[in-house]
Amino acid sequence: MAGSRTFTVLLAAAVVTAGLTGTALATPPGIPSETTARSELAALTVKADGSLTGYSRDKFPHWIDQGGSCNTREVVLKRDGTNVVTGSDCAPTSGRWYSPYDGATWTAASDVDIDHVVPLADAWRTGASSWTTAQRQAYANDLSDPQLIAVTDNVNQEKGDASPDEWKPPLTSYWCTYAEMWIAVKYRWKLTVNSAEKAALTDMLDRC
Fold this sequence. Notes:
Strand content: 5-15%
Shape: globular
Keywords: Signal
Number of helices: 8
Protein name: GmrSD restriction endonucleases C-terminal domain-containing protein
Order of helices and strands: HHHEEEEHHEHHH
Structural class: alpha+beta
Domain GmrSD restriction endonucleases C-terminal: 109-203
Number of domains: 1
Largest sheet: 3 strands, antiparallel
Oligomer: single chain
Signal peptide: 1-26
């Protein structure tokens, strides 16, 4: 029986690998190791979330021009996709995008959202309300940290502005990476975490 189970697991892995052949996994920059993520999580200030009073997505200007006729969304679509072809305006005309949140692959850019790993509203509640507009713009268009990722649009909409204690990617196999990204962004931008959020992140890191 043990041999049968092992064969089944290996076969499933082979099927998944075959399905991903030729399709890049969206990988934002700056994802820390599990050890680094645990250290950064321990360094974050634990505090109850603040109010959403005064919040507006307009206070986080995006998607801004990144040069070469490309805005931030288009840069991430090119980075996270495979065989992406763009027009003169930098908008993708073809390509493939694999969403690590749910394992779906898309061939139309319109089916793909660029997710703010730590949502703008969550950032507002945990420190960004006191930032300048320039700081919020930098945050909303951050290409240097694991803050932006191309994912299935419906999944991104389901997530909304939820923190990890309220929403996690459908694929549990991605929970470790998601937690590492979330923690890195909060650490880089000096945002706070609440106790339920920290507990959820710790649990997700235990899956690494």
